[in-house]
Amino acid sequence: MLQTIRERAQGWIAWVIVILISVPFALWGIQSYLGESGEPVAATVNGVEIATRDLDRRVQNVQFELRDRLGSDSTLNDQHLRAEVLDALIQEVLLLNVTQDLGLRVSDQDLQMQVLAETAFHKDGRFDHDTYERILQLQGLTPALFEAQLRQQLTSSQLIRAIAGSEFITRAELAHYQRLAQQQRELVYARFRAADFPATTPPTDAAIAAFYDVNSARFQIPEQVKLDYLLLDASTLAANSVSTDEELRQRYAAASAQFTEPERRHISHLLLTLPKDADDATAAQVLSKINDIRARIQAGEAFAALAQQLSADPGSASAGGALGSVEKGMMVPAFEQAAFALPLNTVSEPVRTEFGYHLIVVTEITPAVTKPFEAVREQLQAEVTKQRAEAQFYDLGERLANLAYETPDSLEPAAATLGLTVQHSDWISRSDGSGILNQPKVLAAAFSEEVLTEGRNSELIEPERDALQAIVVRVVEHRPAALKPLAEVREAIIADLNAEAAGVATAAAATAALTKLREGADWATVLGTVKLEEPGLVARQADNVPAAVLDTAFTLPAPLANKVSADTAQLEAGDVALVRVLRVEDGAIAADVDLKTAPEAAQLLPGLARQTYAQMVRDMERRADIDRTPLRVVDEL
């Protein structure tokens, strides 16, 4: 585990690669599905076996990811999780078969570009083969296996893109969406408040006891522990570290480029285009033309005027050829080499690039400037301090993990050896800590069997990724979950029962009013003293109407002659609203809209594509010969 911490000193690359290889279609060991084996199988898909070993591996990967992200064991040993993972593997085999039948392929070049572009494998901004192999090794993968999985993922994504790209929306669908999405409804509503319908009879002892029994989970005192713990925090390590002037100057010299503003030049150019595959004769003609233009400039004509008139670069011609201020690395090599070798206000010889022939002139030069040592001294000191703190953190972390393991029944030896202080917590539950003790990973460790039941120190825990904090905990006191006595919660139960009775009476009053309204009674008769709210014509996203009222109003049918469109809606705190729709006004349908560029189409197409893809997967499953072996629960990790 400490080796993993050390690897994370290189950044967040390990987490990125976990995500990269965990996305759908990046199959673990899919090759084994395609060959013969004598291993137990979890399922057979059109004659292709999914080995139980591969299912176990995928389930473990999901469990590890859930544990790492959530710090919880609640999903472990869950047969439902195992069934979901198996369903995903079956779909992947089906999709792989389809891509093979369709002849979809990913070229070696495309695969290589995908690997080279993955920033997880970069070092100093460039792909690094050692980093690539080290990360894969951490994940238990070889380059060949990872690249095979990535090829399968890219191939499957071609199918998904093809399905999404073939989806379209009809004019009738767009019109229907516009009509409904922009629809407005005129409504009125009245709020029947639970406070106006208080319970008139106190609950009986039998009712209180029954409520206590049925809702006993609400009155549980959760299981709690008190912890001792040792905390490593890089932000507090090496805080008083002071470097000598010589050390800082050496660092300054080694990182001088970091403190240097590179030379910048204001450049203008005039371009005559030339195809990349132009023959010698064509190139000679263009070169002759641009030499003639250069001669005119040397004879006194303005460069900017000629660039505006003759340059084939639409982005700069209107500005007299001006490209603005540039630094090295921004232009193509041949252009850059010539531009940064030119004296000020001198027209270059014709320069050929992939775009054609250029004439270049430098109109302003800002020399490179290096910040003086004194200006960056504090920054250098901060960098040194941080570097030392991180080095100390990883060193102490490794030693702490070893010491906590070697003396599992106490934290004192580790604290004494490393100069740390044993800290103490108050009572905490599985879901309620304070500060770092509220982190899911820490809580999961504190209530794990090893720490809680066996009384051992926990492993070294990193609560947050890249936070450079680590902690070891041990349980010093344990208080099992218990049910609060009835006498302690009696008043709360009475309040709940009274609120429940008030809610029932409120709903009954609103329902009675709804019945009268539907029978033709007017509002004055129906509501009595209840206030009528009249928001008028409102849209689906109106924020001046309670959400429950709005939802009810937009699910009611349009009102018909001599027929009231009304219903009740449950509000917060036991209140109930009586909602009536008076009028429906459909949204305007745009005429002659471009179905490809309409904003509504952009909103609808992704959903339609997902729906089509899901239907395709379901159809493949329905047509396939799938035989699932009865599932067993995966062993505890």
Question: Would you kindly provide a written description of the structure presented here, covering whatever features stand out?
Answer:
The chain has 637 residues and is of the alpha+beta class. The chain has four domains: 174 residues, Triger factor/SurA peptide-binding fold, CATH 1.10.4030; 134 residues, no CATH class; 96 residues, Roll (Chitinase A, domain 3); 105 residues, Chitinase A, domain 3 (Roll). The chain contains 22 helices and 21 strands. The strands form seven sheets. Strands 18-5-20-19 form a four-stranded antiparallel sheet. Strands 7, 14, 15 and 16 form a four-stranded antiparallel sheet that branches. A four-stranded antiparallel sheet has the order 10-9-12-11, sandwiched between helices. A hairpin with a 5-residue loop joins strand 19 and strand 20. Helix 1 runs antiparallel to helix 15. The longest helix is centred in the middle third of the chain and has 34 residues. The radius of gyration is 36 Å and the shape is extended. The two termini are 15 Å apart.
Provide tags for this entry.
four-stranded antiparallel beta sheet, disordered N terminus, 637 residues, single chain, Triger factor/SurA peptide-binding fold, alpha+beta, Chitinase A, domain 3, extended
